[in-house]
Structures are given as structure tokens and as C-alpha cells.
């Protein structure tokens, strides 16, 4: 292989040809070791963006990425370990909800999560908004906690998939993020390296998501499930709507508060956060082989919430991570210094609530980061008072801003207002679940461009 010139491999991809395993290996390992410079890797990834990759190339790429780092060995936790990944949403606190529910129903979850970036939130930021919580834990601590309480969520280990960190940093600044094979291999390499036996993917589609169309979301879901299955991990993807935020709360402590509300049994069927969380939990329990069909999981899930066991698991998780559980009280979680209601300018029906704009508005209040090392304010954010389809009177509150700083509040007020659009006639909200994808070879073959 050493006679191979990097430039020839880049050119071969530029012409749209399929690369061999050895050619992909040359690129990946050369780049990770520092032998291939950033400019060649950037050109290579741009060629992938423009010409695509076959399913075979995408699976090889994922495998090669995994092999640049360490793979967690979770074998000290008996039984099937199930993981969950969301491609990034706004007001999406489903990890905080599903993980304790699955543990309460007898599943095992040993999970690594990320921080929020841009307009989307991250589970680690939400957990760390509770004083005392420390998610920087070793592999041994992760396994010990799962063996005690059935679940644990910690921060991403730096030792997993170093190639992805290097590649993502370049993609971010070379306009090469938006590529299905690159996104699929980036996500699946990290998930597979994290060592679970099964993965449930929540692929978001809509204005607040990476994938804006259902066709793209389906394609990404098909590719990711194929990669998982091919590399020995049971994988199912659920395509869910992100045209409006999933829950009503956006912002770290506000989202913890909403998750607790659900786990305390104060949310019911018909609420989108409840419906998606229970669907995801049902599929996680199905993948864990706790139940024979996802439908069979519903009575278990409902009982785990009704009995208080799911909430207890959440409290145990916070305690295990060093958190102060006396903070888990609505009055302490929802207590930013400024609370400002945004009145509706119109009477009518809510036609849309732009998840991207709401995510940006919350981040501007301090709930998220613009740059990797920005410090976030755990208390701030937005609670929506209206969702798509709701009737609204002029002057009625459509959202409440939670802030600690008046400086950027004005910009956020107008941005929040602009996220809402109105209709004079009643509006039917679009479905929140679009599709459920299990690996289907014939479907994913030709769609990777
Ligand atoms: N999330 C990831 O981890 N990688 C991508 O490429 C896109 C989203
Ligand atoms: Ca370099």
C-alpha cells in the first residue's frame, strides 16, 4: 500500500469511483497519525460530500474509524446492554426519561452522551445543571454504577474514535458536515465503540434537525441501521419530527424539570414528549429482549411510571453521579432571576414553532454554546406556552423566557416571537413519528450519494 499516492485516492473519489478497503485505510490511518495533512483530508471529504459513498465503503469507513481508538468492553455487566442516540433536537430530553424507565423495567443502559452544540441541547449539560453532578467517569465506574442501579450516563471518553474528533473539526470549517456517509460513520463509529449490544436511533427530521426532508432522514436511518447490523450491533431507527421543539422546555434545568414531571406521572398519552419517550423506551426494551414486541413493553413502562420506580431510578442516577437531589424540585429548577412572558401579536391558531429559532434563542440566553468552550448558564431558557394547532388570543402568552441577564433579552424576544407563525383557520399538527426503520439492504443500496 505504501506505493499508493494520497492524491490518487482523492482523485479516484473525485471521479466518483468506489474505493477499496486498503485505500480507505490509507486515508483514515494516514490522517489520524498526522501523515496526511488537513488540506488533503479536507479535499477528500469534500469529494465524499459531492460523490457519495457506497454502502460497502461507508461500513468500511466506520470500521476503520472505530479501529483508530479504544472500544469499551462492557462484558462485566451481565446481559444485553442497550444504547440510544438522537441526531440532535430542541427540547428533547428523552435520554433523561428513557434511561431510568428502561432500567426500572429490567433493561441495562451504559451510555455515553455529548454536550450541546449550536442550537441543540446535550444530555451531559442537562445532567451537569444539577449541582454536584460529575459525568467525567471511568469505564470501571460506568460499569459499577450500571451493575448497582441498571443504568448510567457519562461524558464521552476521549479515547474512543480519535479519527472522528479530527475529522469533525475539519468538516465543521470546510462545509463538509452535510454528507450522509460522513454523518452515518461519525455517529455509528462512536456508538459501536461504546460497547453496547443494541442501539436505538432517534433520527430527527425537520427545521431543527440535520436532515430537513423525510427522504434524507430515511436514507440516513437506513445507512446507520445497516452499518450497525453489519458490524454486529442490533440497530433500529425511529424517525421523529423536529419541526417544532419536542417538549415545552428548552434550557438545561428547565428540561430536567420537564423530565421529572413526566417521570412523576404528571404527563399522559397525547403529549408529544410522553408519546416519543415511551415509544423509544418500548423499542429499547424490545432490543434488550425484555419483551417480545415493542407493544408488550407499554404495560411495563406505564407501571414503572405509576409506581414511582422510574423516578426513583432517575434520583439514584443523579446520586451516583454525585448530584444534589434536593435540587430536583420545580421551584429550584425553574428559578432564573428574570421571567418574561412573550405575548401573542395575533388571535388565531399556531401554525408553526420553528425549532431552530427557539434553539438559537435559548442558546443566546446562555443555555447553549456558540463555541466549544463557552460557559453555559444552567438556569436559563424558554418554556413554550403554545404548540402547533393551539388556539391563541392576542396578548396571551406564547412563551416564557427565563434569563439572568437583561443585555441580550431584547434580541431574544424578537427571535422567539419570529419562531411562531399563525393561521386564521384551525391547524392540524403533523405526525410526530414518521417511520421506523430496521436494516433493509435493498433500500439503502443506491441512495448514498
Ligand atoms: N453528529 C455526529 O456525531 N456526527 C456528525 O457527523 C453529525 C452529527
Ligand atoms: Ca493534522
Task: Describe the secondary-structure layout.
Layout lengths: L5 H9 L6 H13 L4 H14 L3 H12 L15 E5 L7 H11 L4 E5 L9 H6 L10 H11 L1 E5 L6 H12 L6 H14 L4 E8 L8 H17 L3 E8 L7 E2 L1 H12 L8 H16 L6 H13 L2 H12 L9 H4 L4 E6 L4 E6 L1 H13 L13 E4 L6 E2 L4 E7 L5 H11 E4 L9 E6 L2 H4 L5
Parallel strand pairs: 1-4, 2-3, 4-5
Antiparallel strand pairs: 5-13, 6-9, 7-11, 8-10, 8-12, 9-11
Uracil (URA) binds next to helix 9.
In the CATH hierarchy, what is the class of the largest domain? Alpha Beta
Q: Could you list the spans in which at least 5 consecutive residues all have pLDDT below 50? A: 441-449
- β-strand number: 13
The Cα radius of gyration reads: 22 Å
Number of domains: 3
**Terminal residue distance:** 27 Å
Query: Which range does the strand content fall in?
Result: 15-25%
CATH superfamily of the largest domain: Nucleoside phosphorylase/phosphoribosyltransferase catalytic domain
Helix coverage percent: 40-55%
| Coarse shape | globular
Supply the helix-strand structural class: alpha/beta
- Widest beta sheet: strand line-up: 1-4-5-13
Mean pLDDT: 94
**Which CATH architecture of the largest domain would you pick?**
3-Layer(aba) Sandwich
- Total helical segments: 18
Identify every distinct bound molecule in the structure, by name, code or SMILES.
uracil, calcium ion
Major sheet characteristics: 4 strands, mixed
Brief descriptors of the model:
binds uracil; single chain; 449 residues; 15% strand; alpha/beta; Transferase, Pyrimidine Nucleoside Phosphorylase, Chain A, domain 3; 45% helix; 4-stranded mixed beta sheet; Aldehyde Oxidoreductase, domain 3
Amino acid at each position: 500500500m505504501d506505493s499508493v499516492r494520497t492524491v490518487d485516492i482523492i482523485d479516484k473519489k473525485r471521479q466518483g469511483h468506489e474505493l477499496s478497503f486498503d485505500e480507505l485505510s490509507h486515508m483514515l490511518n494516514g490522517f489520524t497519525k498526522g501523515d496526511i495533512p488537513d488540506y488533503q483530508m479536507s479535499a477528500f471529504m469534500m469529494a465524499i460530500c459531492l460523490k457519495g459513498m457506497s454502502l460497502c465503503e461507508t461500513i468500511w469507513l466506520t470500521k476503520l474509524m472505530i479501529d483508530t481508538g479504544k472500544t469499551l468492553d462492557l462484558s462485566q455487566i451481565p446481559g444485553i446492554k442497550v444504547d440510544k442516540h438522537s441526531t440532535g433536537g430542541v427540547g428533547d430530553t428523552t435520554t433523561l426519561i428513557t434511561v431510568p424507565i428502561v432500567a426500572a423495567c429490567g433493561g441495562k443502559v451504559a451510555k455515553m452522551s455529548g454536550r450541546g452544540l449550536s442550537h441543540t441541547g446535550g444530555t451531559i449539560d442537562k445532567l451537569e445543571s444539577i449541582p454536584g453532578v460529575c459525568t467525567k467517569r471511568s469505564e470501571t465506574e460506568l460499569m459499577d454504577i450500571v451493575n448497582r442501579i441498571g443504568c448510567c450516563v457519562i461524558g464521552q471518553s476521549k479515547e474512543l474514535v480519535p479519527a472522528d474528533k479530527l475529522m469533525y473539526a475539519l468538516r465543521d470549517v470546510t462545509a463538509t458536515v452535510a454528507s450522509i456517509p460522513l454523518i452515518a460513520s461519525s455517529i455509528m463509529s462512536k456508538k459501536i465503540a461504546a460497547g453496547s449490544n443494541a442501539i436505538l436511533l432517534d433520527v430527527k427530521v425537520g427545521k431543527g434537525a440535520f436532515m430537513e426532508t423525510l427522504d434524507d432522514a430515511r436514507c440516513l436511518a437506513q445507512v446507520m441501521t445497516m452499518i450497525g447490523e453489519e458490524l454486529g450491533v442490533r440497530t433500529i431507527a425511529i424517525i421523529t419530527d423536529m419541526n417544532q421543539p419536542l417538549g415545552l422546555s428548552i434550557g438545561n434545568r428547565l428540561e430536567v424539570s420537564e423530565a421529572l414531571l413526566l417521570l412523576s406521572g404528571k404527563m399522559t398519552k397525547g403529549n408529544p414528549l410522553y408519546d416519543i419517550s415511551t415509544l423509544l423506551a418500548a423499542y429499547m426494551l424490545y432490543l434488550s429482549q425484555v419483551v417480545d414486541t415493542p407493544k408488550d413493553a407499554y404495560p411495563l413502562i406505564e407501571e414503572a411510571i405509576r409506581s414511582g420506580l422510574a423516578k426513583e431510578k432517575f434520583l439514584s442516577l443523579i446520586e451516583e453521579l454525585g448530584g444534589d437531589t434536593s435540587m430536583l424540585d420545580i421551584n429550584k429548577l425553574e428559578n432564573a432571576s428574570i421571567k418574561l412572558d412573550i405575548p401573542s401579536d395575533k388571535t388565531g391558531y399556531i401554525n408553526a414553532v420553528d425549532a431552530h429559532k427557539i434553539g438559537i434563542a435559548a442558546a443566546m440566553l446562555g443555555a447553549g454554546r456558540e463555541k466549544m468552550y463557552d460557559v453555559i448558564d444552567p438556569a436559563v431558557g424558554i418554556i413554550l406556552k403554545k404548540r402547533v394547532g393551539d388556539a391563541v388570543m392576542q396578548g396571551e402568552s406564547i412563551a416564557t423566557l427565563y434569563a439572568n441577564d437583561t443585555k441580550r433579552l431584547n434580541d431574544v424576544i424578537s427571535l422567539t416571537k419570529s419562531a411562531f407563525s399563525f393561521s386564521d383557520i384551525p391547524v392540524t399538527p403533523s405526525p410526530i413519528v414518521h417511520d421506523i426503520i430496521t436494516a433493509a439492504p435493498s433500500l439503502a443500496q443506491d441512495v448514498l450519494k
